[in-house]
Amino acid sequence: MRKIVIAGNWKMYKTQSEAKTFFSEFPAHLKNTAPQAAIADQQILICVPYTNLAILQTIVPAIGQANLSIGAQNVHWSENGAFTGEISAPMLVEIGIKYVIVGHSERRQFFGETEDTVNKRLKAAQSCGLTPILCVGESKQQRDANETESWIFSQLAADLVDIDQNNLIIAYEPIWAIGTGDTCASSEANRVIGLIRSKLVNRDVTIQYGGSVKPDNIDEIMAQPEIDGVLVGGASLDPAGFARIVNYR
Q1: Is 120 annotated as a binding residue?
Q2: Which among 21, 114, 175, 225 is most buried, taking Cβ atoms within 10 Å?
Q3: Alpha-carbon span 245 to 221, nearest angstrom
Q4: Is 18 noted as a catalytic residue in this protein?
Q5: Contact, 221 vs 241, CB < 8 A?
Q6: 9 labeled binding residue
């Protein structure tokens, strides 16, 4: 059975004080009546700025939500070295982090991420036992040129070389729908995610949708048979709104 992963990506938002406030409010909005089987089938994940990782690792366990974890937003491919501003997989593992986003479109767009560096980051994450969330998706220009499928297939072919698909999450994030309010139609997201799944050796990999996910469209998105969760940007910053997304069922 494919696991549902509802993930928030705070990007470069929230100081430590703001993060503490979020988690002082968030648990009260979560459903507390879910059967244990449902909890086992669903992972709640919030990927936060590096400055929040260690402090939240001391706060979140006290909440008592067994399926709630904190994740990182990037990881370097080397265990150490002269890489100013980067963070290594052993550094994340040392403080108990288990998940990390790799290849987010903003990393690709603004910081020169390539398919080669994405592949190396995936390998580094998995070599230390981290579960990476690999982000793939097309631009508006590529979609308008009917290149969605060919582009995503090329990303997968390059990114997944020598990658263990038994320890992997994939997020389909159409770039044109990220932060624009222009959500990809749920049926279209379902179609593309089905195509992504058809290219995988392990068809049980969790595949999320990411792109202007909000409390008012989560039910329709999660009703799609190929979609195993969401990667949420702006809507994950509000404790009540993100809890509504987590509580979609």
Answers
A1: no
A2: 175
A3: 10
A4: no
A5: no
A6: yes
Exactly one of 106, 115, 173, 226 is catalytic; name it: 173
Confidence of residue 32 (pLDDT cuts 50, 70, 90): low
pLDDT tens, 167-218?
999 999 999 988 776 779 999 999 999 999 999 999 999 999 999 999 999 9
User: In degrees, to the nearest 5, what angle opens at C-alpha 244 toward C-alphas 105 and 4?
Assistant: 60
Q: Is 241 annotated as a binding residue?
A: no
How far apart (Å, rounded) are the C-alpha atoms in residues 112 and 97? 25
pLDDT for res 226: 98
3-class DSSP assignment, residue 136: strand
| 104 is annotated as an active-site residue | yes
Tokens matching residue 39:
């909890």
How many beta carbons lie within 10 A of that of residue 162, not counting itself?
Answer: 8
Any binding-site annotation on 179? yes
Are the C-beta atoms of residues 48 and 70 closer than 8 Å to each other? Answer: yes
